[in-house]
Amino acid sequence: MSSWNARRRLITAALVAVVVLGAAAVGVWLAVRDDANPQALRIEGEGPEVGSVPDDGGAPPGAPGVGTAWTVSADGRSFQDESGRPVLVRGDSPWSLLTDLSSEEIRDYLAAREEQGFNALLVSLLGATGNGGPSDSGATVDDVSPFLDGDVTRLNPEYWDHVHAAVAAASEHGVTMFLYPVDGWTIGTSFVPRSIDECRTYGAEVGARLADLSNIVWVTGGDYFPVTNEPEDGSDVDRCFDAVREGLDTAVERPFSIQLGYDKSVSTDNPFWRPRVDWNFVYTYFPTYRAVLDAVEAAPSIPAVMGEGNYEGENNQPETPPTTDETIRRQVLWAMTSGACGAFFGTDDWEFLPGWETRLDSSGAHAAATALDVVEEFAWWRLWPDTDDPLVTSGRGTLLTDDAPTDVLDNDYVTAALTPDGSQALVYVPSTRTITVDRARLAPDLRARWIDPASGVEAPAGDGPTYTTPGPNSDGATDWLLAFDGAA
Fold first, then answer.
1. Domain Apiosidase-like catalytic: where (predicted)?
2. Cα of 460 vs its chain's centroid, Å
3. Residue-level pLDDT at 39
4. In a designed cystine with 120, which of 41, 91, 299, 393 is the match (CB 3.0 to 4.6 A)?
5. What does the DSSP 8-state code read for residue 471?
6. Interstrand relation of 89-92 and 120-124 (parallel, antiparallel or unpaired)
7. CB 46 within 8 A of CB 195
8. Which of 38-42, 119-123, 207-211, 400-404 shows the lowest mean pLDDT across its residues?
């Protein structure tokens, strides 16, 4: 979420943290943070059972959420809404929304993103300096703490009423919240459990407080690197995160996943998490098609979401080109022509830097939204990546086959996807060239057209089988989408 240099500074600062909690009246609980790695938390002892937390009133009264309730489709390819219609994830990443902004500011933010066509937000439920929050105590900007006396089993009603109101407001704006109940920055800082049972109890309490709201998808991890010699068994932190998941499910079961660490990761890469996730969070600073293709090949099939790439205003790989609107388009369109069911966009204002209000209408936000607008015109949930049976037979460029650091603008491989019946196809061509298409793999008499991904404006493409990009697009770059659909 932050630039590499900023991440390194945050990690260095976190390395000095050692958290030790001693004896309590009901037993000996211990949470030890390894000073060699802030995410190597050891959680020992026993804590209270789920349901043993004092009743502090529960969720505030109010009507159930009216936002989109997303579940995984029967074929495992996408999310769907209450009526079973596929939902294209059009995401934004305001990580510290709940701790940095007032309720009024949150509503303004939601209104702006709704107007721009975003329908999903990645947000941390707890704050820490590492995820953009005001402090490592987890308190909001007006000093409201999430827990009473730091006890993760005693939720502060004032804080969680604020959370509930924000999620309900998102529902009113048609936004689904991808919420992190705990992440790689808050474990051991604002969230210090004294046992695995406390992790489970926390999840159950949070789930109960938000049970009346339908517009929630769960995700955990963040910039998270499991520290264990037995990946299949998981670390103490893995088991805490999983206990939180189990607790959440005691209220309402919702889709769940984990975001592992950079520079490239897919949720199902990790053997502990592979059987536990309902969708794949794809995280990469490299050309996105490679990681998305890895995620799509996971068995059984689960939705692959391009969850995080390079953010507008940041450069996540030193000595490489800055993140531009073209970078953002490539990340989105490579993902969508490689089998993803949506993509998240992000800016340097994930931590709400001064003046963030003036930058909501950024060119990067428009670049991401316009690219997704173009894709949404097609049966994107039926498009399958063109790998084994090549639709594009020449001019594709160099396919990345390893995870060597590669900037998004330093590779221009052509990706393509088509429906099983050949009635639609999308080909993303990142730079000037001529490609050859095997039209025998498509339904007969389809029209071919070039679409400018920066504006959505179309240009005729001819009958093929060779197609040459039309020149600079409206952004001055040379990336284009070649689309096949409908009668010629």
1. 74-381
2. 35
3. 67
4. 91
5. S
6. parallel
7. yes
8. 38-42
Cβ contacts of 299 within 8 Å, gap of 6 or more = none
Express each pLDDT in 319-337 by its tens digit.
Answer: 777 899 999 999 999 999 9
Rounded distance between C-alpha atoms, residue 47 and residue 349, angstroms: 38
Distance of CA 73 to the CA centre of its chain: 18
What is the Cα–Cα distance from 14 to 11, expressed in whole angstroms?
5
Domains (range + CATH), the chain: 68-376 (3.20.20.80), 386-487 (2.60.40)
Q: Are 352 and 134 in contact (CB under 8 A)?
A: no
Predicted pLDDT at 37: 55
Six token digits for residue 299: 């068995």
CA distance 466 to 363: 33
Instruction: Inform me whether the pLDDT recorded for 19 exceeds 60.
Output: no
Spatial neighbors of 159 by CB under 8 A, at least 6 apart, are 140, 144, 145, 146, 147
In terms of DSSP H, where are the helices of 125-263?
157-172, 196-209, 236-249
Tell me the helices (H) and strands (E) count for the chain, helix number first: 9, 27
Which is more confident, 37 or 26?
A: 37
* Integer Cα distance of 322 and 319 in angstroms: 9
* Average pLDDT of the segment spanning 257-265: 95
Average pLDDT value for residue range 243-250: 98
The residues, any chain, with a CB within 8 Å of residue 261's CB and separated by 6 or more, are: 184, 223, 224, 225, 283
Q: How many CB atoms lie within 10 A of CB 334?
A: 28
Provide the residue type at 353 as one letter.
Answer: L
Angle between helices 157-172 and 196-209 (to 10 degrees): 50
| β-strands 425-429, 480-487 pairing | antiparallel
- The partner residues of 436 in beta bridges, in order of sequence, read 394, 466
- For residue 49, give the 3-state DSSP assignment: coil
Q: At what angle do helices 196-209 and 236-249 cross, to 10 degrees?
A: 30
Asked whether residue 434 carries a pLDDT value surpassing 60, the answer given is: yes
Nearest Cα to 307, choosing from 426, 398, 223?
Answer: 223
Mean pLDDT of the chain: 88
Whether the upstream peptide bond of residue 465 has omega within 30° of 0, thus cis, is yes
CB 484 within 8 A of CB 448: yes
Confidence band for 31, pLDDT divided at 50, 70 and 90: very low
Q: How many residues does the chain have?
A: 488
Whether the CB-CB separation of 58 and 87 falls below 8 Å is answered with no
Confidence of residue 12 (pLDDT cuts 50, 70, 90): very low
With beta carbons less than 8 A apart as the criterion, state whether 224 and 184 touch: yes
